[in-house]
Protein backbone atom coordinates (compact mmCIF):
# COMPACT_ATOMS: atom_id res chain seq x y z
CA UNK A 1 0.00 0.00 0.00
CA UNK A 2 2.92 2.41 0.58
CA UNK A 3 4.03 1.91 -2.99
CA UNK A 4 0.58 3.02 -4.16
CA UNK A 5 0.79 6.15 -1.99
CA UNK A 6 4.24 6.96 -3.40
CA UNK A 7 2.91 6.53 -6.92
CA UNK A 8 0.01 8.88 -6.19
CA UNK A 9 2.34 11.49 -4.68
CA UNK A 10 4.77 11.36 -7.59
CA UNK A 11 1.93 11.72 -10.07
CA UNK A 12 0.31 14.56 -8.11
CA UNK A 13 3.57 16.54 -7.90
CA UNK A 14 4.48 15.58 -11.49
CA UNK A 15 7.93 14.27 -10.53
CA UNK A 16 9.92 13.44 -13.68
CA UNK A 17 10.76 9.71 -13.93
CA UNK A 18 14.51 10.36 -13.79
CA UNK A 19 14.13 12.06 -10.36
CA UNK A 20 11.92 9.41 -8.71
CA UNK A 21 14.90 7.39 -7.41
CA UNK A 22 16.54 10.50 -5.98
CA UNK A 23 13.33 11.56 -4.25
CA UNK A 24 12.87 8.08 -2.77
CA UNK A 25 16.47 7.98 -1.53
CA UNK A 26 16.13 11.38 0.15
CA UNK A 27 12.82 10.39 1.69
CA UNK A 28 14.00 7.03 3.01
CA UNK A 29 17.27 8.44 4.36
CA UNK A 30 15.48 11.35 5.98
CA UNK A 31 12.86 9.14 7.61
CA UNK A 32 15.51 6.78 9.04
CA UNK A 33 17.52 9.68 10.50
CA UNK A 34 14.47 11.48 11.89
CA UNK A 35 12.98 8.31 13.41
CA UNK A 36 16.26 7.57 15.15
CA UNK A 37 16.43 11.12 16.51
CA UNK A 38 12.82 11.07 17.71
CA UNK A 39 13.30 7.72 19.44
CA UNK A 40 16.56 8.78 21.10
CA UNK A 41 15.38 12.20 22.29
CA UNK A 42 11.92 10.87 23.18
CA UNK A 43 13.40 8.20 25.43
CA UNK A 44 15.78 10.72 26.99
CA UNK A 45 12.90 13.12 27.68
CA UNK A 46 10.67 10.36 29.05
CA UNK A 47 13.41 9.21 31.42
CA UNK A 48 14.15 12.77 32.56
CA UNK A 49 10.53 13.69 33.17
CA UNK A 50 9.07 10.40 34.43
CA UNK A 51 6.59 12.08 36.84
CA UNK A 52 5.05 13.95 33.91
CA UNK A 53 3.84 10.64 32.45
CA UNK A 54 0.79 10.90 34.70
CA UNK A 55 0.00 14.35 33.33
CA UNK A 56 0.36 13.12 29.73
CA UNK A 57 -1.78 10.08 30.52
CA UNK A 58 -4.51 12.30 31.90
CA UNK A 59 -4.35 14.51 28.82
CA UNK A 60 -4.67 11.47 26.53
CA UNK A 61 -7.64 10.14 28.49
CA UNK A 62 -9.32 13.56 28.39
CA UNK A 63 -8.70 13.90 24.63
CA UNK A 64 -10.04 10.43 23.90
CA UNK A 65 -13.15 11.16 25.95
CA UNK A 66 -13.73 14.36 23.96
CA UNK A 67 -13.37 12.52 20.66
CA UNK A 68 -15.80 9.81 21.71
CA UNK A 69 -18.33 12.25 23.18
CA UNK A 70 -18.50 14.61 20.22
CA UNK A 71 -19.36 11.98 17.58
CA UNK A 72 -18.77 12.42 13.87
CA UNK A 73 -17.77 15.92 12.77
CA UNK A 74 -18.07 17.10 9.18
CA UNK A 75 -14.94 18.71 7.79
CA UNK A 76 -15.10 21.75 5.55
CA UNK A 77 -12.98 21.05 2.46
CA UNK A 78 -12.91 24.71 1.38
CA UNK A 79 -11.35 25.86 4.62
CA UNK A 80 -8.22 28.02 4.28
CA UNK A 81 -4.92 26.94 5.85
CA UNK A 82 -3.99 28.55 9.18
CA UNK A 83 -2.51 32.05 9.08
CA UNK A 84 0.95 30.83 10.09
CA UNK A 85 1.05 28.48 7.08
CA UNK A 86 -0.04 31.26 4.73
CA UNK A 87 2.64 33.61 6.10
CA UNK A 88 5.31 30.90 5.71
CA UNK A 89 4.23 30.22 2.13
CA UNK A 90 4.57 33.95 1.37
CA UNK A 91 8.12 34.05 2.77
CA UNK A 92 9.50 30.78 1.33
CA UNK A 93 10.85 30.80 -2.22
CA UNK A 94 8.66 28.08 -3.73
CA UNK A 95 7.84 27.28 -7.34
CA UNK A 96 5.22 25.02 -8.82
CA UNK A 97 7.58 23.55 -11.40
CA UNK A 98 10.83 21.62 -11.56
CA UNK A 99 13.97 23.53 -12.51
CA UNK A 100 16.38 21.00 -13.97
CA UNK A 101 17.34 18.52 -11.26
CA UNK A 102 16.12 20.76 -8.41
CA UNK A 103 12.93 19.84 -6.64
From TrEMBL:
Keywords: Membrane, Transmembrane, Transmembrane helix
Transmembrane segments: none
Keyword Membrane in record: yes
Domain of life (superkingdom): Eukaryota
Matching InterPro entries: Integral_membrane_TerC
Subcellular location: Membrane
PANTHER family reported in the protein's UniProt record: MEMBRANE BOUND PREDICTED REDOX MODULATOR, THYLAKOID MEMBRANE PROTEIN TERC, CHLOROPLASTIC
Protein name: Uncharacterized protein
Organism expressing this protein natively: Octactis speculum
Upper taxonomic lineage: Eukaryota, Sar, Stramenopiles, Ochrophyta, Dictyochophyceae
